[in-house]
Amino acid sequence: MSDCQACGSLLQRSFVDLGLQPLANALVDPERAHLPDRLLPLHARVCDRCLLVQVDRDVAPDEIFSDYCYFSSFSESWVAHCAAYAEATIERFGLGRGSQVVEIGSNDGALLQYFVAKAIPSLGIEPAANVAQAAIARGVPTEVAFFGEETAGRLVSQGRSADLIAATNVLAHVPDIHDFVRGVRTLLKPDGVFVVEFPHLLNLIREVQFDTIYHEHFTYLSLVSLRGILERQGLVPFDAERQPTHGGSLRVFAARAEAGRVGSAAVQALLDEEIAAGLDRAEGYGGFQPRAEAARDGLLAFLRDARARGETVAGYGAAAKGNTLLNFAGITGADLPFVVDRNPAKQGRLLPGSRIPIRPVEALIEARPDHVLILPWNLAGEVIAQLPQVGSWGGRFVTAIPEARVHAH
After folding, report:
1. What angle do CA 127, 129, 130 make, to 5 degrees?
2. Which residues, 6 or more positions from 144, have their beta carbon under 8 angstroms from its beta carbon?
3. Which of 247, 230, 169 is nearest to 239 (CA)?
4. pLDDT for 16-60, tens place per residue?
5. pTM for the model
6. Residues 6+ apart with CB under 8 A from 325
């Protein structure tokens, strides 16, 4: 049992227990295959007091993020999302050559490249040195650092106060959320805007997206819980938008309280929706465990039936969410002989826990399996469009969340 990272209360209420799991992105090099995985409890709990859903913090951030294997630019749909994001924010907030944009958790520069292309002064803050180098190589100024109040103070002393701070799918990765948000307030200009985007907890619950829970995602956010965290540090949300990414996300716009920005009706509408779903009370988070187990059992039944019919199954995407799913279900290479991935940094390695080998996409076309299990289900449309060959040999695409489902080509 641990304390809530937002309010310090003892965490006593379980949201979902996914058992002992390796770090979801800890891919295994073949020469280390004889060594056992480091297994840690993967147990999400909800705070009775502030309603923040979170996992036990058993791993130091530098163990996860110093050498990271996720590169944003390998997803075409994500790059398109970034381009639209940049265009919309530049226009809405009148950003130009006299502005300063800072992205926290900037990865390989997939978003900031569009600000740089318009000569808007930009800086990425990225803790993973290997990923930061990819951003620098494409012309995106990037500093290798973890973000918090100390880093923010240093940037301000260098004259880097921000008109826009972007944090896209990064807040969940923060082990000290208050230090992070204090840093945001410090770095923001008096009239600056903080734009934070994150997978919406309400969608996670509705769509049984338990596989988005892993050790590097310390928190799972609703607008109810985020508003309390922001307000505690003197920031207020003034607008919010739904985004289709990652199975359903929220993009929340916040500013310093004293900036006096008038809140939009969208914020209250989203809060009302969460309250109607029970997210304003601890009891509203109950009943998720059996739903996760039912999704797991559905995938196992699909694999069992395919094997009984003599049909072959291969996986697509060495994604973190896939590893949570595979390890919760106890799936190994006997059930899924290999997965493929477009990222060369992952190819030739093994998935953690399941030890399923990762191969290039060409291996899928060569093997011609009867079924392709798309582990990053949020990219199913993109994957299906990229692989028309699968239909030519009669293969079918399958996803497992929220239930085992065959997709039309």
Report:
1. 130
2. 126, 127, 128, 129, 132
3. 230
4. 999 999 999 999 999 999 999 999 999 999 999 999 999 987 666
5. 0.92
6. 211, 296, 299, 331, 375, 400, 401
